[in-house]
Amino acid sequence: MNRSGHGKSLEDDVQSALKWLKRHSTRATLDGMARYAIPSDNAFGVAMKDMKVLGKKFGRNHELAKALWETGVYEARMVCSFVADPALITPAQMDRWCRDFDNWGICDTMCFNLFDRTPHAWAKVRQWSRKRNEFEKRTAFALLWSLTVHDRRATDEQFVHGLLLIERAAGDERHFVKKAVNMALRAVGKRNIALNAAAVAVARRLADSPEAAARWVGKDALRELTSPAVTRRLKA
To answer: Does the first or last residue of the chain, that is N or C, have fewer Cβ atoms within 10 Å of its Cβ?
Structure first.
């Protein structure tokens, strides 16, 4: 696969990627996307394991990633998360892609494989947490969740600020926002003992909220964060 990223060779790589994805698609996978609330009207039906294989074949190629995104094909955009270079992506490009998100799959995949590796990640958590669009707002908390796993240099103070954003957004009743807020709260609380105490305090306040969505977020997180399994792991 050509990596020069210029002229006809870039288009060749795009077409090669689309053909490869079509060859690895199945009707069963396409039909099954609806079960996971992922739109299939502009998709081929390719398993995640195969998309990862294609991403590994190309390696980091930022110009190709931008071209794949422009195809609008779900799987091609998913492959962008493995191909785009986190050192080259700009805040404006992250915003453009985030505005295009229309399902949780692309949102979470981009966060866990690309966005959380950029130098702009923490600024985007704060910025996107104020968005009105469901999937833009979800991206803020999916990104915070992924940073708990991948950002080893982040300070506790950064995650404490993340807890403030979580508490502010916990009353959002939209399913995909609520789920991401919940996952972010649980993830922050599993990072270390100090953050567990801070997250449990937030979860207790939310569990007593008059808002149904916030109560669910708090009670569900509280069950995990105070469980013997989590407590033992953090102490160990």
So the answer is: C
Q: What tokens were used for 135?
A: 């999937």
Residue 23, number of CB atoms within 10 A of its CB: 10
**pLDDT at position 8:** 64
For residue 5, name the pLDDT band (cuts at 50, 70, 90). Answer: very low
CA 123 vs. chain centroid, Å, equals: 15
For the domain covering 102-236, report its CATH number.
1.25.40
Three-class DSSP category at 128? helix
- pTM > 0.85: yes or no: yes
C-alpha–C-alpha distance, residues 81 and 91, integer Å: 15
Which sequence spans correspond to the domains of the chain?
1-85, 102-236
Mark out the alpha helices in 24-128 (DSSP H runs): 27-32, 48-58, 62-70, 74-83, 91-100, 104-113, 121-128
> Which residue is it, tokens 């996978």?
29
Q: How far apart are CA 76 and CA 232, in angstroms?
A: 42
Give Cα separations from 197 to 46, 148, 154, 229, 234 (angstroms): 41, 15, 18, 15, 11
Report the length, in residues, of the chain. 236
Interval 6-16 mean pLDDT: 84
Q: Which long-range contacts (CB under 8 A, 24 or more apart) does 18-23 make?
A: 18/71, 18/73, 18/76, 20/54, 21/46, 21/50, 21/51, 21/54, 21/73, 21/75, 21/76, 21/79
